[in-house]
């Protein structure tokens, strides 16, 4: 496929996003406009399948906002096609469920690395290869969260393909494997669980891209099990602000 062509899945061409190096990647198409409205000179580009895209500016640099859809396969497709169009810096803004008891609803999780309990990344690199964020993007996200005064955690997140395999493991034929691994991930220090970051990080490594992720904790099933206070929080504005400020920091540092 030529990079001058319109990408089959995301519906964008090189001309559409000429010179764009930075992209913000929410999973939900419904969040794209919400993010874009916080950028300067924003404009709608296209909607194709799960991929809704807007273009805007941060610190006089063009920035793409594009949804990846839900799960690893659609995320990797988006990463592949953005790479073909010349985008090199990717920040995922998503949601997660807390796994450690101190990771509460409303807290942000900056994913330094991800557990590869999903299938997409295995078609890029052997399972022994780690899913790790770019250190410059991770440091920019940490600096942004700190400057904005948000509660955040930095560490490893868990990635899976089956939402209900996590939340209803007892009814699955492989329940013993799911339950044993879940306990192992918690004991090993995994902060939260989600569905896209491992594929983003491994595909980015293979394609020589820089990527990172900031996630909003919406709930914590482990706190629920322990009978602790456990609210829900779906206000994604904090992670969006962190991603935008992190890009400002990256642009400044790169200059």
Whole-number count of domains: 1
Report how far the terminal alpha carbons are from each other.
32 Å
**Helix/strand/pairing category:** alpha/beta
Oligomer kind: single chain
Query: SSE order, as H and E?
Result: EHEEEHEEEHEHHEHEHH
What are the low-pLDDT stretches, counting only 5+ consecutive residues below 50?
A: none
Strand content: 25-35%
List keywords for this structure.
single chain, 255 residues, alpha/beta, Rossmann fold, 5-stranded mixed β-barrel, 10 strands, globular
Description:
There is one protein chain. With 255 residues, this protein is of the alpha/beta class. It has one domain (22-254): Rossmann fold (3-Layer(aba) Sandwich). 33% of the residues lie in helices and 29% in strands. It is built from eight helices and ten strands. Strands 5-9-8-6-10 form a five-stranded mixed barrel. Strand 3 and strand 4 (61-66) form a beta hairpin. Helix 3 (135-148) crosses helix 8. It is globular and about 50 Å long. The two termini are 32 Å apart.
Quick summary of this structure?
This protein has 255 residues and is of the alpha/beta class.
What's the helix and strand layout?
Layout: E1 22-26, H1 32-36, E2 40-48, E3 51-58, E4 61-66, H2 72-84, E5 89-98, E6 108-117, E7 131-132, H3 135-148, E8 152-160, H4 163-167, H5 175-188, E9 192-194, H6 197-207, E10 210-220, H7 221-225, H8 237-254
Parallel strand pairs: 1-4, 1-5, 5-10, 6-8, 8-9
Antiparallel strand pairs: 2-3, 3-4, 5-9, 6-7, 6-10
